[in-house]
Specification:
It contains 4 helices and 39 strands. The chain is mainly beta. The protein folds into 3 domains: 7-136, Immunoglobulin-like (Sandwich); 149-181 and 204-266, Immunoglobulin-like, CATH 2.60.40; 281-573, no CATH class. The strands form 6 sheets. Strands 21, 22, 23, 24, 25, 26, 27, 28, 29, 33, 34, 36, 37 and 38 form a 14-stranded mixed beta sheet that branches. Strands 12, 13, 14, 15, 16, 17, 18, 19 and 20 form a 9-stranded antiparallel beta sheet that branches. Strand 18 (245-254) and strand 19 form a beta hairpin. The longest helix has 8 residues, at 7-14. It is globular, with a radius of gyration of 24 Å. The relative contact order is 0.12.
Length: 574
C-alpha cells in the first residue's frame, strides 16, 4: 500500500508553460509563493507554506527557457537557479525540483523556523527582490487532476499491490475501500533526515490529521511521506459509508487549517457513479466505452440578497438571471473536470469549497467540455414577457446567459428598472432556440417554477463561528427537489480580495443541514470595516433547487431544466 506515485505524474502535475529567460533581475510575483498542490492564496487560512513541503514560485526571469528537472539528490542550484529563504534569523537554501523562467518548484527545508519569512530567487548572476510569506509547521494541499487545486483529486483506488488506478467518475471507489491521496504539507521530516533525498515511508503528524469525505470523517491508516520522493506526502484512508455520488468532496484538516477541497467518486459497488443532478450511470458507461455524451441544460436563478447600503439602510435586492449550456462530455473532461452536476453543485448531502476573487464569485474550471452551438439565442417566455439568453462571448461556444432583472430597489444601470417583483415570478415558462444552430437543432421546452423554501432560522443567524459549524433549518420547497446552502467571505476590503466560497446540497425533504467546521474554516474570517460595502464581505444564503425536468432537442442526448431561488444575508464569519 506504500507504492509511490510515478515521477512522471508528479512532474505533470507540477510543471507549467515556459516563459523566455532574459539575463536581467529575476522577479517573484506578489502572492506568487504557493503550495505546489493546492495553489491556495496566502490570503486564505490554509495559504501558508509548511516545513518540508513542496512549494511553487511564479515570476519572471527566474530560470532557463526550457524546463530543468532535478534528480536525486535534489540540488540547491538547478539550471543556474537558486532559492534562498530567510526566517527567524536563519538563511536556508532550498532543494529544487524543477526550474523554469516563469515558474519553479522547491522544497522548504524542514528546519525552517516558523513565522514570517522572505524568499529570493537568483539566476544569471542576479537576485530578485525579497518576497514575504508565512511558514507553518503543517498546512496541507491535495494535488488535483486539473492541476489547479480543484475538481477530482490525485487519489487512487487501492485494488491490490499492483493495481491502484486513479479514482474518477468512470472508476469510482466503493464504501470500505482504501484510497491513497497525494499532496504536500503534512510537516517536517524528523531531524537528521535530508529533505533533498528519496524519503522513506515515515509517518508525519498522523494523529493530528483529520480527513473528511463528504463531511464524514474517514479512518486514516497512514499519513506521511510518499516513499521514494522528496516533499511528497500520501494519506491512506478508508472510504466511509453514507456518501455516494460523482463529486464527493475530500478535505484535510490539521488543527484549524483546512486544505483545498478536491473530490472523488463513490458508487455502491465501484465502477461508474451517479448523481441525480448529473450524468446518469448509463451515460458514463457510454463514455467509459469510448463514446461521448451531449448534454443541454437551462437554469433559472433568483438571488434575494439582504444588503446594507450607505444612506439607504438595509435593502432587499432581487436579481434574476438565466443560463444555458450545451456541452459534449468525453472521458478527459469527465475525469478531470471540477463539476459533473448540471446546476454546479456537489453531490447530495455534501459541501464543496471554491476560491474566487471579489469580482468573480463563481469558480472557473480550467477543464472544459466541448461547446455545442445551439443558435444565436435561447428564447425565454414567462408570465412577465419575453427575454433571451445570449451567447456569453463569440469564442465561448455553447454557453448562453442573461441578467433578467434587478428588483427591490432601483440600481442605476441595472436591468429591470427596480421592478419590486423581478422577472422570475411563479408560473409557466417556455424555451426555444428559434431555428437552432449547427450542433443543436430547433427545440421547444416547458417548465413551471416551484415554490421556494422558507429558511426558518434566518433571523437568528448573523454571526457564524467557523470552528463550531453551522446548523441551517428550512421548510417547504419542491418536495422532490433540493436545498442549496452557500456562503462566502472576503479576505479583505479591497479590489484585491480573495474569496472563500462554499456550497452544500441536501434534499428539501430533510429540513436541516449542518455545515461542518472543516468547511467553514476554509473561509477567511470576515474583515473589519466592511459593514457598508456595496459588496458584502460575508454572505450566507439558503434556497431551493428544483427537481430536474428533461427536454429533448436534435443533436443532444438529453436536456435538463433546473431552477434555483436563494435568500441571502450579510453575516460575520468569526
Amino acid at each position: 500500500m506504500m507504492k509511490p506515485m510515478s515521477r512522471y505524474l508528479l512532474y505533470a502535475v507540477l510543471a507549467a508553460a515556459a516563459s523566455t529567460s532574459l539575463f536581467a533581475q529575476p522577479v517573484v510575483n506578489d502572492g506568487g509563493i504557493l503550495n505546489a498542490a493546492s495553489y491556495m492564496s496566502s490570503k486564505l487560512p490554509g495559504g501558508a507554506i509548511a516545513q518540508g513541503s513542496i512549494f511553487v514560485v511564479f515570476g519572471a526571469r527566474m530560470g532557463p527557457a526550457a524546463i530543468a528537472l532535478a534528480g536525486f539528490p535534489l540540488p540547491s542550484n538547478l539550471g543556474g537557479t537558486s532559492v534562498r529563504v530567510s526566517s527567524g534569523g536563519q538563511n536556508l537554501d532550498c532543494p529544487l525540483v524543477y526550474s523554469l523562467a516563469g515558474q519553479l518548484a522547491a522544497i522548504l527545508p524542514s528546519n525552517t523556523p516558523v513565522g514570517n519569512a522572505t524568499l529570493t530567487v537568483s539566476f544569471g548572476g542576479q537576485t530578485s527582490a525579497p518576497r514575504s510569506f508565512r511558514v507553518v509547521a503543517s498546512s496541507f494541499g491535495t494535488f488535483s487532476l486539473n492541476q489547479a487545486g480543484s475538481g477530482p483529486g490525485v487519489i487512487t483506488n487501492f485494488e491490490s499491490a499492483t493495481s491502484q488506478p486513479v479514482n474518477t467518475a468512470l472508476r469510482a471507489a466503493r464504501p470500505g475501500q482504501t484510497l491513497i491521496l497525494y499532496g504536500t504539507g503534512l510537516g517536517p521530516l524528523p531531524a537528521g533526515t535530508p529533505d533533498n533525498g528519496a524519503a522513506p515511508a515515515v509517518a508525519i503528524g498522523q494523529a493530528n490529521v483529520e480527513l473528511y469525505v463528504g463531511g464524514r470523517r474517514a479512518a486514516v491508516a497512514y499519513a506521511g511521506r510518499a516513499p521514494g520522493f522528496a516533499g511528497l506526502d500520501q494519506i491512506n484512508f478508508v472510504v466511509p459509508t453514507g456518501a455516494l455520488g460523482c463529486s464527493i468532496p475530500v478535505g484535510i484538516k490539521i488543527g484549524n487549517l483546512v486544505s483545498n477541497y478536491t473530490s472523488i467518486a463513490i458508487a455502491p459497488n465501484g465502477g461508474t457513479c451517479e448523481d441525480p443532478l448529473g450524468l446518469s450511470s448509463s451515460q458514463l458507461d457510454r463514455i467509459t466505452n469510448g463514446g461521448t455524451v451531449k448534454l443541454g441544460s437551462i437554469g433559472l436563478s433568483r438571488a434575494d440578497l439582504e444588503i446594507t447600503i450607505p444612506f439607504l439602510g438595509t435593502q432587499s435586492v432581487k436579481t434574476d438571471t438565466g443560463v444555458a449550456t450545451f456541452f459534449e462530455y468525453s472521458a478527459q473532461t469527465i475525469n478531470s473536470g471540477a463539476q459533473l452536476g448540471v446546476s454546479g453543485v456537489s453531490s447530495i448531502g455534501t459541501c464543496y469549497v471554491f476560491v474566487g476573487t471579489s469580482n468573480r464569485l463563481t469558480p472557473v474550471d480550467p477543464i472544459q467540455p466541448r461547446g455545442l452551438n445551439a443558435g444565436a439565442l435561447i428564447n425565454v417566455n414567462g408570465p412577465k414577457g419575453a427575454k433571451s439568453l445570449k451567447q456569453t462571448t463569440p469564442n465561448l461556444i455553447g454557453t448562453y446567459s442573461e441578467s433578467f432583472s434587478t428588483g427591490g430597489i432601483a440600481i442605476p444601470g441595472a436591468p429591470g428598472g427596480g421592478d419590486p417583483d423581478g422577472y422570475l415570478v411563479a408560473g409557466n415558462y417556455t424555451f426555444n432556440n428559434g431555428g437552432g444552430g449547427p450542433d443543436v437543432g430547433a427545440f421547444t421546452a416547458n417548465f413551471t417554477l416551484p415554490a421556494n423554501v422558507n429558511w426558518t432560522n434566518r433571523a437568528s443567524t448573523s454571526n457564524v463561528n467557523r470552528a463550531q459549524g453551522l446548523d441551517v433549518n428550512w421548510t417547504g420547497g419542491d418536495p422532490n427537489g433540493y436545498v442549496q446552502i452557500y456562503g462566502y467571505s472576503l479576505s479583505e476590503v479591497s479590489e484585491n480580495a480573495v474569496t472563500g466560497f462554499f456550497s452544500c446540497l441536501e434534499r428539501a425533504s430533510v429540513g436541516t443541514f449542518n455545515v461542518p467546521a472543516a468547511i467553514l474554516l476554509a473561509l477567511p474570517p470576515s474583515p473589519s470595516g466592511g459593514a457598508n460595502n456595496l459588496v458584502p464581505t460575508g454572505i450566507l444564503g439558503v434556497g431551493g433547487v428544483s427537481s430536474p425536468r428533461t427536454f429533448s432537442a436534435p443533436g443532444i442526448d438529453t436536456g435538463v431544466i433546473v431552477s434555483s431561488s436563494v435568500v441571502a444575508k450579510s453575516v460575520n464569519y468569526q
